[in-house]
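## retry 2 of 3
previous attempt timed out at serialization; input unchanged, resubmitting
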Amino acid sequence: MGILGGGAHDNAVERRRRAYEILDAVDGDPTRARGRAVRCCEMARNLFREDGDMREARGLLRGGLMQSHADYGTIYRGWIAMEVDSGNIDAARFLFLEWRSQCGGKDGGFWCSYITFESRHGGALRARAVAEAAVAACPEDPAVHAKYAKTELRLDRKDSAFAALARALAVFAGDPVAQEWLVDEVRGYRDALRRQGFAGRLRACCRRFVRPSRARHGYERLH
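## retry succeeded, writing output
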């Protein structure tokens, strides 16, 4: 058992060594920043799966952020997802604040990710506060305005959602393409929420009131 355990440890060390060598080999090439960031996240996730904690993975991700011409967005998204998967919500939130300082708060993609995170893990007040900050920081990004309106819909605040949409349409009064996209995006999200709500109510109703006419066959239980 000791020999087998030692071999597994040696293999893990070798994988870590190769991971850092790969990152070092491509450091400084701005044309490969995206691919380097994706590879960094993949290797960090593999370390996380092997170790069961984030210590080694964090070190690798931090190294990726410190490289020249790092793709901050890709690395932070991957890192935040891993922290969430491991239950470290506070650590994930801290990474959003760190990411904000790196992008100067003017990256619409950052804000959309942050709004989604707080909608799922921070509650209504946090989600709304981040959405308002996002619109203030990126007033000319239609995706941020749409995210704000969709967040209000998700929180079941329909009046606030369509007020946010109206403000967005006013901002893009001179851009009919952006206006059309905004309306389609928010309307589509509203319709999707309605379908989800109806499907959920229908399933609950069936479970409560409808009894199967016969026992299900074994092959039917597989579906």
